[in-house]
Amino acid sequence: MQINLLKSIVASVAGSSASGIVDFLHKKKNVNEFLIAKKLKLTINQTRNILYKLADEGLVSFVRKKDNRKGGWYTYFWTLNSGKSLLKFREHLAKAAENLQQQLQQRKASRYFYCPNCDLEFTEENALIHDYTCPECGSVLQAKNMQDEIIRIEKEINKHNSLLEEVDKEVQVIATEETKARNRRARAEVRKKLKSREALRGKKKVKKVSLKKNNKKKNKKR
Ligand SMILES: [Zn+2]
């Protein structure tokens, strides 16, 4: 898989600061988490937080080993999964894009109010119930200008969609490779069967020939 796509994926799951983990884990297996923390210049807890988030999405997997030098604590060894984990990630991405789309519709369809004092947000219905005053501090509620937020959500949706496109391309590539590999295996299987059949036939021939030879010898003697 392309390393840049992996980075975008990791960034979208665990934040842009986490994407450096890809450089370090790419094409390696079972990397010690303390080594990862050291390379990323993060604490072990920060590192684990990132890795757990990625593991939830199936993007990394781990094995753990009890470390007797560290008082019997477990040390985790991490491997970046590409390939099949992509499908799970695609699902997550599509769902998130759908949620954003819903948010956008809501934001566009209704009015919102806020308290300038407490930074609380109210739907129009709630604002009406409270007579357009904040139930916490009594300030008059203000109508919220949704334009900025709508733009923010739209940008977020675009980001999701372009990542989704990238992921779909990669899924396609992987599927094609898998089909090719399957076909290769099937052809190899057929060749193997043909060969063993030929070998069997060859043996039978040898038997017949040697029988003939024996007969000839017998005939000569007579
Ligand atoms: Zn208030």
Keywords:
Arc Repressor Mutant, subunit A; three-stranded antiparallel β-sheet; binds zinc ion; 7 helices; elongated; 2 domains; mainly alpha; 222 residues
In short:
The protein is mostly helical. Helices cover 65% and strands 12% of the residues.
Topology:
Layout: H1 3-14, H2 20-25, E1 31-32, H3 33-40, H4 44-56, E2 60-67, E3 73-80, H5 85-109, E4 112-114, E5 121-123, H6 124-129, E6 142-143, H7 147-221
Helix pairs in contact: 3-4, 5-7
Bound molecules: zinc ion.
How would you portray this structure in words?
This protein has 222 residues and is mainly alpha-helical. It has two domains: 3-82, Arc Repressor Mutant, subunit A, CATH 1.10.10; 87-168, no CATH class. 65% of the residues lie in helices and 12% in strands. It has seven helices and six strands. A three-stranded antiparallel sheet has the order 1-3-2. A hairpin with a 6-residue loop joins strand 4 and strand 5 (121-123). Helix 5 (85-109) packs antiparallel against helix 7 (147-221). The longest helix is centred in the C-terminal third of the chain and has 75 residues, at 147-221. The radius of gyration is 33 Å and the shape is elongated. The chain starts with a helix and ends with a helix. The mean pLDDT is 87. The chain binds zinc ion. The site of zinc ion has 8 residues, from loops.
